[in-house]
Amino acid sequence: MEQSARRLAPYSRGVSEQHTATGDPQSAPEPSGQPRRPGALDRLRQLASVLGREVAKFGVVGAVAFTIDLVLFNVLFYGPMQGHLATSRIVSGVVSTSFAWVGNRMWTFRHRRNRAAHHEALLFFAVNAVGLLISTGYLNATHDLLHWTSRLAVNANNIIGIGMATLLRFYAYRTLVFAAEKPGGDATVEG
Length: 191
Hints:
Layout: H1 2-12, H2 15-22, H3 40-77, H4 85-108, H5 117-145, H6 151-177, E1 180-181, E2 187-188
Antiparallel strand pairs: 1-2
Helix pairs in contact: 3-4, 3-6, 4-5, 5-6
């Protein structure tokens, strides 16, 4: 618990403390000696800052996972699993998801970790299973129903399917998988 509190310390420091340290007269302590409570604008700035950092880190982890996914899919589909579109997509998706699990847990959302690793892993892989169904379903539909079978079409539609699934993943990771929990069990949006 103490270790968790230290990890959260940089994110839980009040905005007013940050302004007071910089000498901002708007955030000077109240006459009682207590720092003023952060206003709505301060809380909005803090939320935007945390969200911006999370989006940037999520993007880096996602870009590496995406590269793993796309390269491995091509190696499999045009190599040893030639003609097995869904199998190639699922194998590459599972490998890239495993990388993304480690990257997001240890870096992107590390300040939000309050659940046991096995609980987060179960939620993470459940969310990714839904994402994999979306991307594989889209890829199969364009390949088998629309007969877009050229290498360019397969890769373009693979990218589009991964993109659609990524929108679901970011929202679900932030609100469900890596949601910071208050002692009472309610999820919070604080970073």
